[in-house]
Each structure stands twice: as C-alpha cells, then as structure tokens.
Amino acid sequence: MTLGKKIRLFVFLFIVPLMLGAGAGGYLALERGVPSLDELKHYRTAPSTKIYADDDVLIGELKLQKGKYVPLEKVPEHLINAVVAVEDSNFWKHSGIDYLAIARAAFKDILSRHLKEGGSTITQQLAKITFLTPEKTLKRKLREIVLAMKIEKNLTKQEILELYLNRVYFGHGAYGVEMASRVYFGKSVSEITLPEAALLAGLLKAPSTYSPFNDIKRAKDRQKIVLRRMEEEGYISRKLRLEAEKTSIYLSRARRNKGEYNYFIGYVRKYLEEKYGADAIYKGGLRVYTTLDRHAQMEAQRALREGLRAIDKRRGFRGPIGHRNLDEEKAHDEGAFRSMPPNVGDIVTGVVLSVKKRVAEIKTNGIKGTLSLEDAAWASNVFDTKTQTTKKIKWFNLKKILKPGDVIKVKVKSIEGGKAEFALEQEPEVQGALVAVDPNSGFIRALVGGYDYSKSEYNRALYAKRQVGSAFKPIIYAVALKNGFTPASIIVDEPVTYENGPDNIWTPKNYDEEFHGPTRLRDALAYSRNVVTVKIVDEIGIGRVIDFATAIGINRKDIPRNLSIALGSLSITPLELTMCYTVFANGGMKMKPIGVKYVTDRRGRVLENNAPEGIRVLDPQTAFLITSMMKDVVNYGTGWRVRALGRPVAGKTGTTNDYRDAWFLGYTTDLVAGVWVGFDDPRPLGEEETGSRAASPIWLDFMRAVSDNTEPRDFPVPEGIVTRLIDPETGLLANRWTVNAVLEYFKAGTEPRESSPTIWEIREPENILFY
User: Fold this and answer.
1) Is position 87 annotated as part of the catalytic site?
2) Is 762 exposed, middle or buried (0-12, 13-18, 19+ CB in 10 A)?
C-alpha cells in the first residue's frame, strides 16, 4: 500500500470519526476553554507597561503587541506570497483547517510515536501565538483547531494575514514583519525585495536555525526552498526565481538587541504579575520606575560573559561547531548574504579556509583574516564531551585542531586594510549569575541571570538554588562573635570526629587536607579552615546558626539541621546570599530588596512607592568585626585576587564538593556584589576551579568598571570598638618581647586582659639558649 493510500485510510478510520465526535459534545467543551475574539481584534490598542531605569531612561516594555504594527497594504505582495507559499499554500482556499495536512502530520506522529509534526495553517498558527501555550499535546491541538475555526468565521483572510504577519516571531528578538525587516536588513518592510522576502519567510519554520546571522549556508538553502515553493505555486517565474537566488542580500550590522536588561526586566515582570496581574501589565499602561543602574547592568553582563568564556576555555576546546564543503561555499558566494564587516571585539562565526601549523585563514561576515597559533593557544587542552575529561595536546599546532571547512567561533581582535586578526573562541557551556545591591537602601543595581538571555531565559540569579560552600562561613562567624568569641579567639585545627555529622560518623577535612594547629578566628576565616568552622558550630550550637541565618533572610526550610551547615551545605539563590551580605555591609541592618521604586498608572497616579526599609538583625560592632575579618580574606586569604581593586574590600569565597559551584561575595562601602558560577546540571567545573579562581575574577572585573569614578572609602569604625596589640600566636595581649604583634579589633569589654607569656615564663632559664 502506498503512503497516499495509507493516509487516506487513516483519515477515514481515525480523523473523520474524531471530527464527528468533536463536533458533537467535544466541540462545545473545547469552545468553553477558548477566549473571545474581541481580544484578538483590539489587542493593538492595549497600552504597554513601560519600565525605566534609575535615571528614568526607558529600558523595556511589556505589551501584547511586540514590534511595530503595519497594515497589510504596506506589506509587499512578494512577502505575502512567500509566506503563504511556504507556510500554508491552501490559505486562500481552506476554512482555517487543512485536514489533509493534519492527517499527514498525525500519521507521521503515530509512526514516530511522538507529537512532533505541525500540520498547522496560518490561521492555526495565529491562534497558537495569540492565545495558546506552545506545548505539543492533543488537547492543545484540538483547542487550536476550534479557535482557528472561530477566527476564520469572524475575520477575513486579509485580517487574519495582517494579524499573523504582525505577531509571528522571526528570531533575534524580532516580532512581526516590520521589526524583522529592520533587524535583518536595516529598513522598513515596505522596501524589501523578493530575495529578502524569501529569506524572512524561510525564518518562520525555525528562526534560530535559519538565521543568516547564525548560519549563512542554512539560511541560503532555506531561502532557495521558499523561492522554489513560490515558483511551484505560480507566484513567480523560473527566471525570476533564478535571478533572486543569485542576488546578493546585504544584512544589517545592528541586528541584535544584546539584551543587557532582559534578566532584570524578567525580575520586574514577575514582581508586577504577582502584585497586579497580567491584565494590568499588558493592558493597563503602567509606568514602572526601577532601581537599575544601566551602567552597572551592562558591565555586569559583560564581566559575566567574559568570565564564563575564560572558565570554559580552561576546560578545553570542544572542537569545531560544524563543517562546510569549501567548494559549495564558493558556489554560495554568488547570491550570498553580505553584511557589514564585524566590529573589533565582536564574536562571530567563521569558516576555516586554510590551515598551517602556526596560522589559519578565516572567512566571516564580509571579511577575511588570520588566526595565529598564539591566539588559539588555550585550545592545546582538548575537552572530550563524552568522557568529560581534558587532554593536553603535545607539540600543539593549529593543524591538530582545525582543517579547511571547519566552522568555529572567533573574536575580532583588529581590522586593518580590510584584513582582520582573529582569536579563537567558543560558546561556554558553563553558566553564572551576578547580583549587585546598594547595601544602604536595598536597591538592586544590577541583576544578570545567565550568559545569554536569548539562549536561556532561566534567571539563575532568582531561581538557581545552589550550595553556597564556604560563602556561608561569615554568617557562622557572626554568630560566634555574638556568643563570646572574638577575632583573636584560638581554636585548634586538628583531626576531630563527630557522631552527629551529615553521615553520622564524620571527620571533616580542610581544603588542603592539612591541619594547622592553634588558629585565630580571623585567620580561620581568611584561609577558610573547615575544621575550625565545624568546631565553632558544634560549640555555639546549630540552632543559633539557623536562627541567625533565618533572621538575615534565609528560609529556614533550606537549612539542614546538622553540622554540615558549617561547610555551607544549604542551597540558596545568588540574590538571597547577596542580600545576606548587605547586613554586614550596612552595619547590621537587614534591608528589603527593592527592584521597583514606584509605579504609576496611565494617568500618572502613584500605585505604590517603595522607600528603603530595614530592620536591625545584628549589632553594629559585630557587623564591623565580620567586615574587618573579611577584609583579611582579601588582604591575605582566599580572596587575594580582588586586592587588585585598589580600595577597601570585604569578601568571601565559596567552593562546593568536586568544584560544582564557585562563589564570591564581596562589598565596598557603596556596593555589595555576588557572583555564582556553575553548570545548570550540577557537574564539576574542573580541577581547581574554586571560588577564588572562577568567581572572584568576574567580581573584580565588574567592580573595577563600576568603581572607577568613586572615591575609595574605608569601612567606618562604630562606637564600642576598641583596638589592642596582640600576640598572633596566642591571641593575648602582646608583651615587649612579642615578635610580629598585630593590631586587633574587639567589642569593648571583650578585649584580652592577660598578656602573652614571655619566653622566660614558658621555659626554665637554664634551658634558654642565647646566640
């Protein structure tokens, strides 16, 4: 039996009875779940919610209509024909449903045992993008059919097409034909040519896959398919098709919104939806004034991206991202897409034209250039994605990793005389988040939830609950300082075993797997000593630690009630942990995190006004002592890398088992910032990828960029703090024989009264040797 006969039999046996059944009771039930068409007819008039940064500059809009609406008469006929030919050739004939297409798709679904075939008409696609969720389920498909029927009954074909062309997504943030034309070609849709129209129509099936900015060859192949369909449907002649295929298309350089604000806008949208509901947001014309610092946000995004690329390179080169036949590549040069040469600093996709040991010739958008061995040196480490291991290439040269036709990512280092110099790059798999908060107000100044919003909208700053490791230790040490300890208190770093540990019998170890004997609390925090910290928790009590952690903003349910909390076994989000550190930076005051300052309605009436709001959860003296101790984390401890900021900084690193998470939380007097780095599926970042190595450089890069124009200030010393010279070996007052005495801070009344014993007091006089 032929495929055609099988399809007809399938339609007769399954589809027809299904339609008859749906037409009886099922249709009425499904129709009750389909919205009114009034919303579709009038959605253009709904005023958008506008979102402004802290300096009142517009950074985003929340609206039903994305892009710029254009009437159908301003859309070129060849674009309309291209879309109809490739998306729904029976559009002008059917009544909203193409039953043969549905049957064909359903038959293929049954053969493959998956719901993957579309079979949707333009009317069904309009129904889906206007009202319905995109999941591929039978119920969704049936409701889509019902809504498509309602649309066809109430709207003309021209109205349907106009709505569709103004709402459909074309990739790179472009909704609707007008926005798409400007993104891809830098001009209005009314000006586009037949070859350009065919390119746009080809994007609809899979915008990311067929984007010329992502893959020129695929985009060209898809354009040819659209042109052939137009010829087959009688919209153009063979001669016109061939001419269009050979015509060069010039792409716009300013094609992509980099999306620096998108993660923050997502945070604001969630806040507004929970408080006002979707109708008020998308139809109410709200004006939302936020706390975002635009400069800080852009620098946060840049620093995170560059830092994640550096980490990914240390893991090793994963190989080319594709391969092309260079003979076919030359054939594509005729009628190829042309674009303005990239800017210095851009990361673009390139094709390897030739390779020698020390240099490779690369072609990318509108320009050729060279890649030197030195600019690909990091790829001497090759990462095997199957075994998740890194291998070092001996006697490394470019011919060992590249061959002609390979497709790679490169960064434009320079352009001179029409020739470029490139550096080898690759898209990182590792993810991260960065949050920056003003500790004095709780205002969120920057919030970045991932490497690239266009590739992953998941906001890790808000939703990624990850183990915090040693970044939790300052919270523990603050409890210790509230309960009789001082920065000079001595605890012996030695082997110890507990019966109430995370695995019953538990012997904690330090990161370096060594023990360091008598250790001051200040040094224990600076060097992140695990054993000392576990001893502290055991002595002050787990309950006290949990109570204080809850008081500064951590959900009690997220905290394990065993000694493992000494090593940061709890999992919280980057925003939550950053807000915890604002308590120390703000003298013990816990501020409410604020992203939205105030909201007005369309008439300018204030709906809410969020002033800074804080409560005291820690005395100023303890907050200062923890800040002082975390300054030494930076001065000589695990946070040494951020000393390069050149101003007073307090901070703490955090690393979890097997290097699955890397943290750095730190602050100056004006800004608290937290950085998390890790994979979405918790797997090791790589050997030695600690918080110090992986996270603190990102923090440093960001803080350098946002602190350049501010005067360095040290943390103020509150009343009730005294200083004493102490013996660093004993924590007691220094005597005149003490070598390397240090100045230590204490709460008034907790300073040591006793002097450190002299050598005369420790040894019998006859045993003292003189030199």
Assistant:
1) yes
2) exposed
Report the mean per-residue pLDDT for the chain: 88
Evaluated on CA atoms 721, 725, 728, 730, the torsion sign reads negative
- The 3 state secondary structure assigned to 677-734 is EECCCCCCCCCCCCHHHHHHHHHHHHHHHHHCCCCCCCCCCCCCEEEEEECCCCCCEC
Known catalytic residue at 470: yes
> Annotated catalytic residue: which of 87, 231, 425, 576?
87
How many beta carbons lie within 10 A of that of residue 515, not counting itself? 16
Give, rounded to a whole angstrom, the gap between the first and last alpha carbons of the chain: 107
Q: What is the pTM of this model?
A: 0.84
Q: Is the dihedral of CA 56, 60, 61, 67 positive or negative?
A: positive
What are the CA-CA distances from residue 503 to residues 466, 497, 498, 559 (Å)? 20, 11, 9, 16
With a CB cutoff of 8 Å and minimum separation 6, the contacts of 763 are none
Q: Which residue has the tokens 């042309």?
A: 338
Q: Give the residue among 215, 456, 218, 455 at the shortest CA–CA distance from 348.
A: 215
- Furthest C-alpha separation in the chain: 113
Q: Please tell me whether residue 229 adopts helix, strand or coil conformation.
A: helix
Q: Of 120, 181, 470, 756, which one is the catalytic site residue?
A: 470
Looking at the predicted structure, is the pLDDT value of residue 181 above 70?
Answer: yes
Q: What are phi and psi of 264, to 5 degrees?
A: -70, -40
Please write the tens of the pLDDT for every residue from 416-468: 988 999 999 999 999 999 999 999 999 999 999 999 998 899 999 999 999 99
CA–CA distance, 480 with 502 (Å, rounded to integer): 21
The answer for residues whose C-beta is within 8 angstroms of residue 706's C-beta and 6 or more apart is 293, 295, 296, 299, 436, 671
